[in-house]
């Protein structure tokens, strides 16, 4: 099984930027699509963005489209989320998750990281 | 977007009980449905994919059923470690969407 570890979260002022990273180990990274899912504390799960194994497919939730950019570096077994123009409503725990099927763009999630908290506040 | 509606939003049960959680999609999604378990302060854990297939390592007391718009997650005999919040998620189309969650408590 892959082991996923997120980093880069913290407290940031509205309008500023933050870059999340997700490091993968223990299994093949470059064959699988990767996604970011977030959760406001005490609330439900919201898919944020996804990227296919070769970066050929990118997709974003309407709530972040135009502000967030997903990317990956298969040579470094790493996934990223560049978050610009942050808003208070972006405050959440952010999880990276790996797709279940190798080479598939279908958003079936398998392994999850432990999450990283992003707080947007002045 | 496809809306996912779970019911109930919470339920009280005892160890040994049979528990069923329902998830309804706003349009047909074939069998493209997953279930997750989440405990307080922890990441979600994948339980079931393709509506009825157990992820590796998931106990056989968990089962999933359904197709089209209506789906169930059943725990045949509730164990102490099963008290958690459960979410369904449609995998049929982007954006993938989750149900609101069902909290299973004592």
Question: Can you give a write-up of this model?
Answer:
The complex is a heterodimer of chains A (122) and B (106). Chain A is mainly β. Chain A is built from no helices and eleven strands. Chain A has strands at 3-7, 10-12, 18-25, 34-39, 45-51, 58-60, 68-73, 78-83, 92-99, 109-112, 116-120. The termini of chain A are far apart. The relative contact order of chain A is 0.31. The model of chain A has no long low-confidence stretch (mean pLDDT 96). In chain B, a hairpin with a 6-residue loop joins strand 9 (85-90) and strand 10 (97-98). The mean pLDDT of chain B is 97. Chain B has strands at 4-7, 10-12, 19-25, 33-38, 45-49, 53-54, 62-67, 70-75, 85-90, 97-98, 102-105. The radius of gyration of chain B is 13 Å and the shape is globular. With 106 residues, chain B is mostly beta strands. In chain B, the strands form two sheets. In chain B, strands 2, 4, 5, 6, 9, 10 and 11 form a seven-stranded mixed beta sheet that branches. In chain B, strands 1-3-8-7 form a four-stranded antiparallel beta sheet, with no helix packed on it. Chain B contains no helices and eleven strands. Classes of the chains: A mainly beta (122), B mainly beta (106). The interface between A and B is medium-sized, with 22 and 22 residues.
Secondary structural class of chain B: mainly beta
Question: What is the overall number of helices of chain B?
Answer: 0
**Secondary-structure element pattern of chain A, one letter each:** EEEEEEEEEEE
Strand content of chain A: over 45%
Order of helices and strands of chain B: EEEEEEEEEEE
Coarse structural class of chain A: mainly beta
Number of helices of chain A: 0
Whole-Å distance between the termini of chain A?
39 Å
* Main beta sheet strand tally, sense and closure of chain A: 7 strands, mixed
């Amino acid at each position: 099984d892959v082991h996923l570890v997120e980093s880069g979260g913290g407290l940031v002022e509205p309008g500023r930027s933050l870059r999340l990273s997700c490091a993968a180990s223990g299994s093949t990274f470059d064959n699988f699509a990767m996604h970011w899912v977030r959760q406001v504390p005490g609330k439900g799960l919201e898919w944020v963005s996804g990227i296919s194994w070769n970066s050929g497919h990118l997709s974003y939730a309407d709530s972040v489209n135009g502000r967030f950019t997903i990317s990956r570096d298969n040579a470094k077994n790493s996934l990223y989320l560049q978050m610009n123009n942050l808003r208070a409503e972006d405050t959440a725990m952010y999880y990276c998750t790996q797709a279940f099927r190798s080479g598939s763009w279908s958003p079936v999630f398998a392994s999850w990281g432990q999450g990283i908290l992003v707080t947007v506040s002045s | 977007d496809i809306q996912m509606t779970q019911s109930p939003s919470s339920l009280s049960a005892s160890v040994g009980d049979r528990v069923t959680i329902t998830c309804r999609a706003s349009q047909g999604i074939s069998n493209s449905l997953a279930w997750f378990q989440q405990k307080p302060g922890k990441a979600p854990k994948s339980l079931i994919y393709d509506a009825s297939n157990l992820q590796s390592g998931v106990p056989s007391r968990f089962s999933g059923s359904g197709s089209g718009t209506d789906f169930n997650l059943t725990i045949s005999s509730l164990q102490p470690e099963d008290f958690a919040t459960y979410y369904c998620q449609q995998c049929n189309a982007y954006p993938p969407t989750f149900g609101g969650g069902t909290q299973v408590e004592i």
